[in-house]
Amino acid sequence: MSTGRLLPPLTRNKLLVHFLFFISLFKSPEVDCLDSIPTIENEIEGINEWIYLSVPTASATSNVSEKCLQHTEKYLTALESRLPWAVQMYESSGRLFEDLIYIEGSDNMHHESGLFDECLSVESDRVPFQGQYCTVFFKLKPVKEEETNVNQENISNTSTDEPVENLYTYQKPSVGFCLPSTCSASDLRSAVAQHVGYRAIKETHFSIVTVANENDCYTQKKIDTSRTTFDNVTIAVLFAFSLLGITVATATAHDICNGNNVTKSFAIQLLHCFSAKRNCATLFSAEESKDSLSCVHGIRVLSVCWIVLIHVGGAFTSLRLIYNQQMVIEEGKQFENQFVANGLFAVDTFFLMSGLLVAFTKLRQLDQNNGIFNLKRFYSHRYIRLTPVYAVLIAFVATLHPYVGTGPDWNFVVQKSQTLRKTWWVHLMYINNYVTPVRNGLWTNPAMPIGETWYLACDMQMFWLSPLFIYPIWRWKRTGVIWTVCSLLVALAISAIVFLVHDLPANKFLFRPSDMAKINVYADKHYAETCARIPPYLIGILLGWLLYKTKDKPIYIHKCLVAAGWMMATLLGLIVTYGMFPYLDEATVPVINPWIRVSYEVLHHSAWAITVGWIIFACTHGYGGFLHQFLSWKLFVPLGRLSYSVYLIHLNYTFAYLSHQRKPFYYTRMSGNVIYVGILAISFLLAFVVCVTVEMPFINLDQLLFANKSKTLQSKLNQSFLKLKTRINSFTSFSRKEKDVRVI
Question: Which positions are tagged coiled coil (predicted)?
């Protein structure tokens, strides 16, 4: 490795010379001290080499700015003199061990993280710079074998300052350096690139490319400036949040003091919609409406806990937070962990329940309203129900999220915030799963904002389409059911065609390296596609119709059929969860049979929906046993009301937690469980605050402002319907009389 000339000359290392000379007196008493002096000089050169590992800008031959070179010299001079700030700066820096960047046959990524906070706190009145923490990533670029004999400096010129292209760049080997703040990312990149060349890995030659970006460089001044500078958008969001907080506090205080002693005018009722006292009482109430399906509450809570577990587990393999990422991946291949590693279908439970509840509720309303379908109210109620919490989350992530923490990878949070500022309208229109700037790179684009909300877009789009199935089922019954079933089959057929045309991988891409290249295609063409995810929703509509017809009627099912139903549901659930287990190891199964791959990927969403659907049906009609008692536990009722907010909050909190990490840690099951439980508990706590201050107040407003109008409109529509029916009956009776007269 060519290190160039270290700026401080060897004569400045007198203290090190004296120290090593003193040590040499005790190393070998039989050796003459004069004979040992050349050895000391060699050791001094080794010390300089060791210092260079943490101070790459010390090389005079590297292409760095003059100011950076000068300040690096002052830093090393102070380090020679053992000045505290210089020693702290040196100890805060990682080491550039070239042989550890890429190791033949190893899948583990080497990270020298250094000390983030210690580096930022470096400051001295004697020098015109502060400590600056910068992260350099390394990636491989294939080169032809004949090029490996070229001068190494020419090969290393492939370094670039391009931004991080995808999430997995954060998994590349990296070193965190503590350098003078006057050195730019370009200086650091050039200095490091000067001393890395190529590697031959598995008989293939690669040039090592350095990637450093100003966004991955931090100083205390830069952080303080960014955290005390608010643009107009951020100020507006702060004002809106403050106004909301004042409104909630005022409404709560008024409700506590005068809630039971005043005649509630419309203005008071409007104010009390924001009362935390009222909303807490509603939230913690375990009462259910007569038309509710009690087992759904437990399924909803368990499903959201499962989704949080999957996202937290997946996060352990997405950012550079652990030393043993390969161990996590290998653990994910174990049979008992498939419910986490292969749990991406957990969201299908919510698609099923969404279709079920929409159909079950609306079919009963159609009975009560004589078949009148108020589409305007149907859509507006849904939008008001989902959007306020969603909008608050978008506003927070787009403006305030970057201010809540710092860390070596905090740019990950900042990128999401900046992207969301440009695409917020796409999310509020619920088309973020189709608009290209947001859709591209659903899983690997680090700038992808609030990526979990693809579900909300799919669910809302399915809700828009639901009247096309619900009303025909109510109006024409068997024809409507056949139409829904045919639509389900068409959706499955389209998914199969997409899989075949695009040659999509199985959803086990995490464990099959050959499928990694298609991860974004899989996400865009299947995972976030409404057509591909609508089958569970349609199954939910059919189940809602079945429960609508049978809920209030006693149904007797033979014990053998009940046992067969539970056995079939269990078998389908096990196949969905563990069916791809034999194909995890690509070395054992290089190619998955296309029929197995396509059939599993197309059908497993529907199979899981059928499994959960049977549980709901059996529990509703008294064939659930102890499972029904557990799922109907009263504690699940208030927790279920928090599930929507938990879903929106938990992933953003998880990424903030990971980006805030100062150093990677060694993953174990115990540490993973502790982190999961902590994130889950904090997510529910934050969801409680959001639910009481945002979600429930707007639900109250919806009921207050639109309930009376809906009743008035419904009354008018019913009267019109009765008048029309009366006229039709009158006209029919008149026609009959006229016909009778003619016959006479």
Answer: none
